[in-house]
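does this look right to u?? NAP version
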Amino acid sequence: MQIRHLGSLAVSEIGYGTMSFASTYGEAPDHAEAIRVIRGAYERGVTFFDTAEAYGPFTNEELVGEALAPVRDQVVIATKFGWNINPNTGERGPGLNSRPDHIKRAVDGMLRRLKVETIDLLYQHRVDPDVPIEDVADTVKNLITAGKVKHFGLSEAGAATIRRAHAVQPVTAIQSEYSLWTRDPEPEILPLCGELGIGFVPWSPLGAGFLTGRIDATTAFEETDFRTGSPRFTKEARAANLALVDLLKTIADAKQATPAQIALAWLLAQKTWIVPIPGTRRLERVEENLGAATVVLTAGDLGEIEAAAAKITVQGARLPEAMTIRRAHTVQPVAAIQNEYSLWARDPEAEVLPICEELGIGFVPWSPLGQGFLTGKVDPKAGFDKSDVRSWFPRFTPEAMLANQALVDLLKRIADAKGATPAQIALAWLLAQKPWIVPIPGTRKLTRLEENMASADIELTDADLREIEAAASKIEIKGARGTGHEVYG
Ligand SMILES: NC(=O)c1ccc[n+]([C@@H]2O[C@H](COP(=O)([O-])OP(=O)(O)OC[C@H]3O[C@@H](n4cnc5c(N)ncnc54)[C@H](OP(=O)(O)O)[C@@H]3O)[C@@H](O)[C@H]2O)c1
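got this back:
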């Protein structure tokens, strides 16, 4: 295995990500097997190992520390701080925490768990909008002076943040998602790394397994596997994204390699200071992945991949929505999220509303009247004009509307008791959810505008809200909210 340099840090040209032993991708093998695989990676030439206090939390660092103790002096161990994890208990609190005192305590825990005297590479896992990056860099600088840390890294940081951090404490490596299907670092971050002499470590270099060709639209994921909730791994997205895997297979066949090897070789070919850290729980796959180092991609191959990849539009956001919001917020504070939300489209409740609450972001429900359906003024038998988007929506077929009428009946019942209209109850229900929710009902009629505005005067008591909740929870909404590829809004 050749050596590459991340700044002044020498590492094997392919590293090893150990996160999946913390069950991110479903069940992990038992302890002894995990140790065997990590040591096996070292025996096969890997000298660069990646973990984080958040993996577990803590258990992954303990595992890596134990596995690498016999070869400690031969390897580079990277770990990360930054999530709001209780340094004593490992319990995860909401959000991030890069306050200097927290970083110092986190590092002491890491040293113990990793069984090392110094951390070779310490990354901030996510930029904390509440702590100036200069303070973070200065804290790491002091830890370096104290001998507890050797090198400083940042993960998923924006260009301006990297520059500011680098001015206080030189940054050795940036770790961000990068692969043939996630090319966000190319316009800004990679050029900046080149300019400042910072190394780059792509995480999920195999596209969380998708680029290996061993996943298709029919693959079932375990419940604990994060891909179950990832927009890029819905069945539809996978079916569409297979075009990229087909491209990798074509190149792989010509090179007598595997798609995973081509995906990694492509990364290695981008810059001499890029070191991918593929993760796998199986030793034979470690071997396969390391084989990428011997695959030579010529300028012609790279041009062919580039041209073919340019024609493929990758479907599905790479991260669940809450994570995307958090990342954007660290670069530029977000004032508001606008998503569909109403009594019949409650998806934001699971993830997006809690993150808005945590970060102080407002929420603007679009289609707060369920595209008109919740007003009780849509006649299920009337049908829609072809120019009306609802004519395409599964939720507006006559059968779906008939079934969904139960929700309108509920709104009517509450409205009658309050001397209001169903539309007003639908809007008052939204207003009652959070004081920072502002619905934007649309209408072409002034009388309806007045009707909608008057919802602000309706008070729904706790008892009303409980009644609505109880009744609504018994109603199963029929029909998907959109067609999945509609182009309206
Ligand atoms: N900084 C950050 O925020 C961040 C975020 C995510 C990850 N990371 C780091 O990056 C490392 C790598 O990323 P990742 O693990 O998310 O994604 P990845 O390396 O792109 O892919 C891992 C997935 O691919 C499968 N896989 C690996 N090699 C394979 C092969 N040759 N053939 C078929 N399947 C294969 C693994 O399953 P099996 O285990 O079943 O082989 C696993 O499900 C992590 O371990 C972690 O250290 C950092």
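Residues 3-207+270-291 form a domain with the TIM Barrel fold (CATH 3.20.20.100). idk if thats expected tbh
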